[in-house]
Amino acid sequence: MSREELINTTRAILARAGYSVSSPLNMRSVCFDIVGRKNDSLLIVKILSNVDAFSRENADEMKILAEALGASPILIGERSSSGALEAGIVYSRFNISIISNETLEDHLLSEIPPLIFAAPGGLYVKLDKDLLRHLRETRGLSLGTLAETAGVSRRTIQMYETGMSAMIDAAIRLEEFLNVPIIEAMDPFAYKNEKKSQEYEVSGAKRTDVQIFNILLDLGCSVTPTVRSPFEALTRSEKMVILTGLGGDEERLLHKASIVSDISRISGQHSVIIVERKRNIDNIQSTAIVTKDEIKKMDDQSELKDLVLERSGHE
């Protein structure tokens, strides 16, 4: 399957599941390909035929965006150097979940969540540690009995009861012996915040190499520059996150604004493109167009916020 077909398949699955989905970016240099939202679930999705091509730099920027926007980063793929990605298994790279479209479809459309995750050493499952302990204690089972049943040590059973994951074979033997489901479903959209957004955020007296970002900092905004996104920064102004692009020539401006508008619509955020010269338009779709001179004349971040809201049609 070509990458374009792979992206279209992912978009179709999300749409059938009730997600609003952005148009594909079709830009290989960016860290994600689509965004999708359903109620409070916002996904930032990268789609690759071979997931080995996923770099740490891409992962870090996906995390920055996810943390700033309250989203979940996820990678959809077909294969790795080890072979095809199997259905029902959650893989990971740089702490971002990786699944196949088949797993995505099962999870969202058939309500069959994945149970297995891949980690160094093999395939594992998460156990309901409280239920396992409860069953052992109420049935009067010893650690040794469960250890012998599962083919592991008594210490390992104790670790299971404190939350350690189990190899598949051991977990299945325990379930069969106890005759109770103790394997917990995986949430492929779960993401543990690494505070990457804060790590790269610039605020206060700090400065960047980009003049307009420094002007925004002088207004009291904080700025998180981006490298692998279709916009140049995330700007925080009075608890509002603004997708911030820098305008170039007219043709590229229209294309960029269209992309950024689509992303801001799905993500529920506002967007602005800052240009050098005044144009005859105040917005392109839902993206506000503001000049550098207009920002220079502002006294504080509230003026920027108000102007973006006004020009984007969200007064």
Number of helices: 12
- Low-confidence runs: none
Helix/strand order: HEEEHEEEEHEEHHHEHEHHEEEHEEEHH
What composes the largest sheet? 11 strands, mixed
Q: Shape, please? A: elongated
> How much strand content do the residues show?
25-35%
- Distance between termini? 45 Å
Cα-atom radius of gyration: 24 Å
- Proportion of helical residues: 25-40%
What is the overall pLDDT average? 92
Strands, count: 17
Decide which structural class fits the backbone. Answer: alpha/beta
Task: Explain what you see.
There is one protein chain. Strands 1, 2, 3, 4, 5, 6, 7, 8, 9, 10 and 11 form an 11-stranded mixed β-sheet that branches. Strands 12-13-14-15-17-16 form a 6-stranded mixed β-sheet, with helices on both faces. The protein has 315 residues and is α/β, with parallel strands linked by helices. The two termini are 45 Å apart. The radius of gyration is 24 Å and the shape is elongated. Helix 1 packs parallel to helix 3.
Question: What structural keywords apply?
Answer:
315 residues; alpha/beta; 12 helices; 17 strands; 38% helix
What is the strand and helix layout of this fold?
Layout: H1 3-16, E1 20-21, E2 34-38, E3 41-50, H2 56-69, E4 72-80, E5 83-84, E6 89-93, E7 96-99, H3 101-109, E8 116-119, E9 122-127, H4 129-138, H5 143-150, H6 154-160, E10 166-167, H7 168-178, E11 183-184, H8 196-200, H9 211-218, E12 222-225, E13 233-237, E14 240-246, H10 250-267, E15 270-275, E16 283-284, E17 287-291, H11 292-296, H12 301-311
Parallel strand pairs: 3-4, 4-7, 6-8, 14-15, 15-17
Antiparallel strand pairs: 1-2, 2-3, 4-5, 6-7, 8-9, 9-10, 9-11, 12-13, 13-14, 16-17
